[in-house]
Hints:
Helix 1 crosses helix 3, helix 2 packs antiparallel against helix 3 and helix 7 packs across helix 12. The chain is rod-shaped. The N and C termini lie far apart (143 Å). The protein has 14 helices and 13 strands. The protein folds into three domains: 106 residues, no CATH class; 191 residues, Beta-Lactamase, CATH 3.30.450; 126 residues, Beta-Lactamase, CATH 3.30.450.20. Strand 3 and strand 4 form a beta hairpin. The protein is of the alpha+beta class. Helix content is 48%, strand content 21%.
Amino acid sequence: MQSELTTQTQTLNEDQLLGLVTRASALQQSGLQEEALKVYEELQTADPEGRYGQMAKKAIVALKGKGTIVEPKASPAPNLSFRGIAYQTAGRKDQDNAIPLLQKLMNLPIRRKQLLGLLTSQFISIVSLVGIGSVLIVTNLRTQLVAQTRSELAVTKINYNIKINQMAFGFRGQSDNTAIISAALTRKASPQVLEILRNEVKAREIEYATLVDSRAVILANANADRTGQTFNPNNLVTAAIQSGEQIKTTEIVTWAELAKEAPPLPEGVANTDALIRYTVTPVRNPANKAIIGALISGDIVNNKRTIAEQTLQAFNSGYSAIYFQNSQNQLQPAIALKSTGKDNDLISIGLPTLDLLNQATANPGQPVTTRQILNNQPYALAAEAILNSAGEPIAFLVRGTPESQNSKPQNSKPQNSKPQNSNLKTHHSKLKTQNSKLKP
């Protein structure tokens, strides 16, 4: 009977022998040492001289604790596999280290695999939730910052228009001055008229104050004596006389014109075109209301820090700039300041690229926004084009807010708004007093 069993086990084919290997390995990994030992003994009996028998012999020795088998380096034991699954032939540390991580995971019990899969899925879910949440938070904050910067640009626009509105108010009052009207009627200016114009330049810190007749011929000028010369910048005098309305506009004045006028220029303005704010106010004959001349005021923007400083002081940080397109159709800064955040310290710095201004040119009258790096710090930038008398984009107001502030958007509100209102009233009353003093 024993001989028949031996004959039967010896006639096992390759798949059956591998089946015994699989069964024995599974029992061993499950901790069923006795059952695994019986299967290894059966495998050794079935293949006593073959590789499976040798593998079973080593496993039996290891299980019975009779010693550690050291294989010669010249003939390492073959790696066994069945249907893509490799099987460990001995419990040695050097063989464990040789097993790939994926294979070790595959050899884990089912319960451990399920637990590992559950923990992995939970980890991935948490990481995904945190990642998506972070992206949404950053996107939302940047959207808020862009809207904040766009609203702050409106403050920059107000600061830009303050001076031109002041000039318009003052020169409208001077157009009713009897000395101005007499000079326009007689086409001859008295010393009193020259004094009025020079006082306007000095009091308002502007560069141009000129009286012309109805043909745009200069009658009196606050700077160089240009009496008899035609002064009709961009046909503004003609337009004001024809319409009978006061004109407020932003234009470009060439260096050739500045050299003729010879006004007291801001520091650093030389041999270059300049951005200028003009007002042209018709002068009427009080008898018949006919237009007999015009008063022209002009304020150069280049290198005047007031507009940018007022915006930066209002928000206590950020970037403020005014760019313009010169007579060669090149974009250049009239003023560009950035707050360093240290004791109101400001530095001059231009935009790294002019794409934002090109975008504003294509969308006149509408604020446009972008994101740029200024001095190694990310900023949300907004810009809006200023149109000249011909309706062409000629200048650009730029406001920038650093992204480091987007966690505190409430700081974007102008500081000390109530004191500013009281100061504005005080300034308005001073302006009325100043205008009355200018009148003889």
